[in-house]
Amino acid sequence: MGKEKETASLEDLIEKAGGCAVVDGGFATQLERHGAVINDPLWSALCLIKDPDLIKRVHLEYLEAGADILVTSSYQATLPGFLSRGLSIEEGESLLEKSVKLAVEARDSFWDSVQRTPGPGHCYNRALVAASIGSYGAYLADGSEYSGCYGPDVNLDKLKDFHRRRLQVLVEAGPDLLAFETIPNKIEAQACVELLEEENIQVPSWICFSSVDGENAPSGERFKECLDIINESNKVHAVGINCAPPQFIEALISKFKELTKKAIVVYPNSGEVWDGRAKRWLPSKCFGDDKFELFATRWRDAGAKLVGGCCRTTPSTIQAISKVLKRKVVSKEDC
Ligand SMILES: [Zn+2]
Description:
The chain is of the alpha/beta class. It has one domain (about 5-335): TIM Barrel. It is built from 14 helices and ten strands. The strands form two sheets. It has an eight-stranded parallel β-sheet with strand order 1-10-7-6-5-4-3-2, sandwiched between helices. Helix 11 links the parallel strand 6 and strand 7. The longest helix is centred in the first third of the chain and has 28 residues, at about 90-115. Mean pLDDT is about 90; it is low at about 1-5. The structure holds zinc ion (ZN). Zinc ion binds near residues 269 and 310. Zinc ion binds near residues 243, 269, 310 and 311.
């Protein structure tokens, strides 16, 4: 499978979606709404072991809501994390593989059903599956994905070693995309870029940063420094922001537009603040679905090519985004 074909598929999807494709929403949030107990260092990855059917159900809910891209349940699924729970390497690897398979199965069965019964007013696209690769901080589960402070012992090689085997296993499982998420600093962005090159990865990827001040990476490093590294890689097809509050997004899109020619992807959280140490959401300025609907068009008009939601957003958030972003497409083609 050549790189050109894969590249075209992300670009085609963006075009088919009317210029801005819809990424799905909060995964763990939705698992919890269905009663899953995931207060655990493995977080949503715990469901890969305990309740894979529920993972598929959540993927289907996001597809029905209009998501063009499904992000897999592997964000906090790591081999060291599984090993610390007493699983073998083989078991851990097969769970990573399963995270991709579950999303692919959901996508395929949903797409079959849409083609069998095309309904008026719906404009579904065959979704792409993005394998989620959470940052090293997400594995540490100590909130450092929002501080960028990995400490003096963490260097480039250590980060590459942490990411390498999971990346290989996820790629083997056959996703359409790779989604590096909540990267908090320059060194981890560099690790991702170098690893894609060293492993000669042919699956297109995006790299998303979190941001806690609305201007810089969580480490305090400037986004220019981070994006300069990413811009040199032709393996990275999109860059952006995930799991930052929505009120930061418009200004960050404008900033990124000046710093890169790559497609821009944004999927903020609902605006509630995660207390990484206490492992709970603090009440804060929270965006409802109506606000997301309003802001999604502004984010698109500012230059985002991929828009979705992260923590605390739900299928109804994604439905609101999808409805407003695809309005033009639906009226033009009446699909
Ligand atoms: Zn999030």
